[in-house]
Amino acid sequence: MAGVHQPPNAPALVSFPDTDALAHSLAAFILKAQKDSLDKKGRFTIALSGGSLPKMLKGLVDNPSVKWDKWQVFYVDERVVPLDHPDSNHLACTTHLFSKVPIPAENIHPIDPTLLNDLEELSDAYEKDLIREFAQKDAARFPIFDLILLGMGPDGHTASLFPGHELLTEEDRWVAYLDDSPKPPPKRITFTYPVINHALRVVFVAAGKEKVDTLSNILDHPEAGLPAARVKPAHPGQLYWFVDDAAAEKVQYPRTPFKL
Fold first, then answer.
1. Best-predicted range by mean pLDDT among 68-77, 126-135, 250-259?
2. In 158-225, where do the E strands start and end?
3. What is the rounded distance in angstroms from the CA atom of residue 130 to the CA atom of residue 195?
4. Is the pLDDT reported for residue 88 higher than 80?
5. Cα-Cα-Cα-Cα dihedral of 207, 1, 129, 97, to 10°?
6. Could you tell me the domains of the chain?
7. What is the CA radius of gyration of the chain?
8. Could you give the 3-state DSSP secondary structure of residue 84?
């Protein structure tokens, strides 16, 4: 991404004074990624997380530069609940973004709500949805998203990849399930590291003073191996942390100025 420079394979830490500035620059980053992707292949593939991330996408609402008909949207992870359940990542993204923009419904890929009682079948179905979108078009071992947006929990988890969980070592599946999430609800499906790390760009979004210790641990002490610190995209120089100054207060890791 032009204007953001960092050593190969090292994340770029970009800190903003408040969440409004963060959201504005995040939208600009997404639009640049969209343009690059549309220029190259005529479509834009993006995967979203839940949590506080959907609220940070407000800069895309009423933005005439977004080519919604070219987007294909997947979820990095999802809670195994009905699509209208308060815990649903799809509901959060719909509430804060999709209900406010003209994206075609068929361009959004939620989980199949008829398969909630069978975790293996549910995760297999979502993996097949990815295969339909990526396998024939890209001919790669793993899907190559143009952009994946991630959050970070206070325990350092990202997606539904939690500290000490067996899914941290999953190397083959694109989508895996768990029924023992330490954070409720217990049943979830999630992208695995190979999928996340094959993306062309990965952006973590973290804001608020409650993230300050975890963010410092991840960036200043990656050797501790927290799940978020294990995100290492195969494409050098394409890992970013978009944070606010409150979250970055204790971080010693060098900041990178943001320019497009």
1. 68-77
2. 175-178, 188-191, 202-206
3. 10
4. yes
5. 40
6. 12-198+214-244 (3.40.50.1360)
7. 17
8. coil
